[in-house]
Amino acid sequence: MFNKLTVATAVSAALGFHVAAQENSNEITTQKVNTQQEQQVERIDVTGSRIKGVDLEGTQPLTVLDEDFIKRSGANSIYDLLRDVAQLRGGTGTFSTAQSGSLSNSTPAGQSAASLRGMGPSSTLTLVNGRRIAPSSFAAGTENFVDVNSIPLGAIKRIEILATGASAVYGADAVAGVINYILKDDFEGFELDASYGNSFHSSDESRAQINVLYGTELGNGNLTVFADYFDRAAFRAIDRDYTRDPVLQSSYSYLPKLENAPNIYYFSQQDLLELPAPNCKTPLVTTEFGEEICAYYGNQDDYLDTPFESVSAGATYTHQFDSLTWKTDVFFSQTESTAYSSPSPINRLDDSDGPFVLEDALFMFDQPDGSNFYLDQMYIDPFDSVAGREVFGFGFDARFTNPRTVGIETTNYRLVSELSGDIGQWYWESGITVSRSESEQEVVAGIYNRYKFHAALTGELCQDGSIASYDGDMLTCAQGAPRPFFNPFLLNDAQNDATLALTEAFPTRDGESAVYAWDANINGDLFTWEAGTVSAAFGLEMRREELSDIPSMNSRARAENNYLVDVFGFGSSVAEADRTQWGAFAEFFIPVHDTFEVQLAGRYDHFDDFGGTFNPKVGFTFRPIDSVIFRGSWSTSFRAPSLTQAGIELRTTTSTFDCAVNQAVADLYCMGDGTEVTVNTLELGNDALRAEESEAISIGFGWSPGENTNLTVDYWQFDHEDVIDTNMTAVLDRALTDSSLRHCGLVPTDAQGIAYEQEVCDVTDAAGLTIEQSGADLGQILDAYIAEFNPRENELFLPLSRDHVIPLENTGTQELSGFDVKFDHRFEMDIADIILRADATHYIKYERNRPGSDSIESLAGTYRYPENVATFSITWSAEDYYVRLNANYTDSYLDDIEGLRGREIDELIELGAIAEANDTRQIDDWLTWDLSAGVDISKALTIRANIDNITDEVPPRAYASARGFDAINHDALGAIYRVGLTYRF
Question: Which domain holds residue 347?
Fold first, then answer.
């Protein structure tokens, strides 16, 4: 007999690959039913509802990853565990240390985030035991997120994932849904788990982990203690032949490493062509202008996984008094990682291209006959030194040798203490939460002081690393004479290298984030009528959030210093904010009929910095027959501007504008092409930011024709409005008619807009108006600039200066919808069971307005947004052992050819990858197989083994990424193994 409880249990299991623990439906039914005869069901907690009761999990699609699945997965971290969950795949929201970098606008080193539906990490609410946890103080861009690396995997009992809007129950941030991490408690005994894994390649990508779990009765309660240690080696692009070399030869940079010898800047040549030094250590590359240059490719310095180490410990104590239960859980975690980015480009003192060095640098190229090809071909021009001298030299192109290397240490603390009990038929609980995240970042190598370096180029650096003073006649140092000038063309010279070393700088960055909260709720039965018992929950929450992100002064852009950061290639943000919030909610479970039940919920939240918001939810379940359940919900959700967005003072970053969405912008800045251009910007906070809002719909059904077969299909839809971001394209568009946004040189203090190079400001349109004047015709100014200055053929656009100042704003909307399908079936046999599972997500649409345009772009099926992702598995499960074969599938999708440079598109045509410039290209679909097995040697000892990507499948080629593959949807690690054991006593 398959009663409605069995169906609800099957639905709540979030059927498919991700619910590996639910190997036996009878066992799960037994957990909820005291006896089949009595049909009495204990009260249980379910993510997505505050009511402890029966069948509520059936009103919403809930994915559950339980303890057995976690152990069998072979995962070493939360990110490893979640990366194959269909609802978390695709888009750019979920990230790992594979995307981390050393810059302030990069993903924070050593940190990872989970993002449901690709809507961004700040749109996914992260809970631990149903309560919030402090986000990372270092934002990803300006999005604050919870670093899932800070949550110890060894302490997790299960993970519940609700991929639909949930602000009606949980408040802010649950736009795309909720991930709730449930910690282990009430454990008795001792358990030791250890594992080691590595790739099958000769390079070292090892990962080792050990965790300990201990539990005992203590007084009239239980104490559960855990500790976990994890260490992972780095994984570099040069460690695989398919990522070692550039995917396109035309994806070069004109800026070679100093160790390979610089190029001569093209404006220093009489023919205005780049010229390589004769001592270049790498093969010369031919440019689209026919130049032979010493080039740079980023693969050699790319880390696909950073080195990472974490240690964590914690405890849960539950004590039963006569009528009260006191429960406290606490955990501590510390992570350390190192991030690497390509070596910093070297710019002029004012941050423009082509730094100058003394003309004496050319003398090293004198020939025995006294000739010097470079002196004969070069312009030697005057320029001002740091000390204030007028000297003569020429421009060069280069980047430093050492990658920008940053070490980061993050410490997290969390304490939750709660009391609970019963008042008649009502259950109540109240608790406090204290959660803190502290991060320290320090440069290890690869960052250089702009002023000291330029002083070194002109011989104005003293022996102690200070800059010499100039009295109009001679240079003086506090002690001794200045060092010889730094010659960037002189390689492997000890004195020259020692001078460069004195210009190194080591900026720091300190961040703190905290959440202090109190909550109380009560739930129980209101009354009983013919259709059943009406239940309800009511609650209050008060929360204080604080965040600070403070870099050292030498990495800040400051108005008094013309917004020049003291160091090359290393910006930062300054953000400080706090807010106080309170919320109240009510939730009702109403059986309307024996076959039809309704869930109603509503929550009001008030923030002291931007006001209040109310969010409702309506859900239903309908069981026409015992084996079928229909369910659906409608809700609204919101995300308040993150504390970084609310408190950012000035952020040094880069912004990209898209000429494909605005032809007027393309004509002025992209020579009419639909390319993407990245420029240096200063990002400002905005007091007028509104909360992001979302409307979510979910409707589906579950079918359980027998106790061994389950199928669920759910349609989901999100309408996400007022998304917060910067919009460089829109600012350029507004600047077409708004002269207040157009500035010659630096944007003045307290102003916003676009900064133009001085040459543009020296010409006028036909009416005699400059670019800063109202009514100026920018098209005519472009024509006048080209006629006056005769720029290169690929530079026939308005030249932008540095540090455009743009605010955060509510940029637009995005709409997405799709289906989740989950299926499992068990074949029961005498010696073992065979379990089949499938879990798939199909995106019907993912649309958003293109930045700077009212046009709508469809993302589903485009770069990084596969339409279909799926996981399939077959498990042979016996009493003492199991073997599982698992397949992960990612659909094909379009490569981002449109975003490539012209020379790269030309090379693709030559390679036959595309037929013409406007052609499209598909990135191949990807299928990988994983094999796992485990055996219980005894009641005390279990041994497990996993091999991921057993066929060593190479990621499909993606020309849109300099890495040659899409690191969001694919993995370049190849086949990896892991062996582990669990010992219990």
Answer: 236-305+340-406+442-508
